[in-house]
Amino acid sequence: METQTPHPLSLGTRDYARAALARAFEEAAVMPGTLLPHELLQDLTEAAGRIVDEVTSNGTELFPKDGSGPWAYIIEHSVDATVIGLQIGRKLLPGESLEELGIGLFLQDIGKLALPEAIVQKPGPLAPDEWALMMRHPLLGLEFLRDDSIPAGAKSVVRSHHERWDGSGYPAGLVGEEATVFARIAAVADSFDAMTSERYHAPAAPVPVAAEIIRSAAGTDFDPDVVAALLD
Hints:
Layout: H1 11-30, H2 38-56, H3 72-92, H4 98-107, H5 117-120, H6 128-134, H7 137-144, H8 152-160, H9 181-195, H10 207-216, H11 224-231
């Protein structure tokens, strides 16, 4: 599964992040309740930290996505949306905020662990009842991250990365700056990487096409300042 957007991430760090996410999916399949073990959360935050370190040090080696294995798209999307969000964050945030942003970006879809795989990986459009379940994944993600080791800003990304600037998003219909700047960055990064990636139900869009879609949604779906940072 190839992406059309280049990502400055070494193969070693990408593989480490892939492995941490894969362990999370495996654990979720057999664990009782909705609280990830502290050790697994440590692995996930360590992976996010390694991505932050490489993005902020301007690494340039490029490696493709791995389209094989269960949950492949979610795993690759989690890594690449983190890279894109951090590149945006470097333009908008102080450096000391980037690790918290990176953790949130990396964990933004963790709530999908609690959903049936048949829904998360459905090759066609979701039925209304399936979509209602999918819209629960931000709040389910918070349940997984009740551990106090996850900072509040990171949790705000998990909860609010599907909120929209005009209040049309979910789960709470937050308007404008009611969503944190971390979450507003994640909304753009999540959408841009999704559009430029091969998904279960849609082909990858060329980067210029995706960029124009994001630009046209500034002030409606997305924070205009975040969109400007992406397009810069």
